[in-house]
């Protein structure tokens, strides 16, 4: 079980999580805002992709293009997919 920065093992010992799942949970475990966002999204559609319309994608593309100082962006699902597309 985990909550925030703490992870509890099966024997009940509590540890400070300094691994953060290799940066995938650096916001802590079970963050309430993230859990709510996941629930809200699941109520709309479980899987999203560039193949599906999303009212948020255009705004997100613009923000990423601005931050990266690029004219256009094309997000990918994995690093391998990004490299293959770039090639």
Please give a quick description of this structure:
The protein has two domains: 1-45, no CATH class; 47-87, no CATH class.
List the helices and strands and how they pair.
Elements: E1 2-3, E2 6-8, E3 14-16, H1 32-44, H2 57-68, H3 79-86
Antiparallel strand pairs: 1-2, 2-3
Number of domains: 2
Q: How would you spell out the order of helices and strands?
A: EEEHHH
Spans where pLDDT lies below 50 across 5 or more residues: none
Strand content: 5-15%
- The first-to-last residue Cα distance is 42 Å
Count of separate DSSP helical elements:
3
Average of per-residue pLDDT values: 88
Task: Give the biggest beta sheet.
Answer: 3 strands, antiparallel
What is the strand arrangement across the widest sheet? Answer: 1-2-3
Any idea what the radius of gyration is? Answer: 18 Å
Any idea what the shape is? elongated
Number of strands: 3
Helix-residue proportion? 25-40%
Class of secondary structure makeup: mainly alpha
Q: What does this molecule look like?
A:
Strands 1-2-3 form a 3-stranded antiparallel β-sheet, with no helix packed on it. The chain has helices spanning 32-44, 57-68, 79-86; strands at residues 2-3, 6-8, 14-16. The protein has 3 helices and 3 strands, in the order βββααα. The chain is elongated and about 50 Å long. It has 2 domains: 1-45, no CATH class; 47-87, no CATH class. The longest helix has 13 residues, at 32-44. β1 (2-3) and β2 form a beta hairpin. The protein starts with a strand and ends with a helix. With 87 residues, it is mainly alpha-helical.
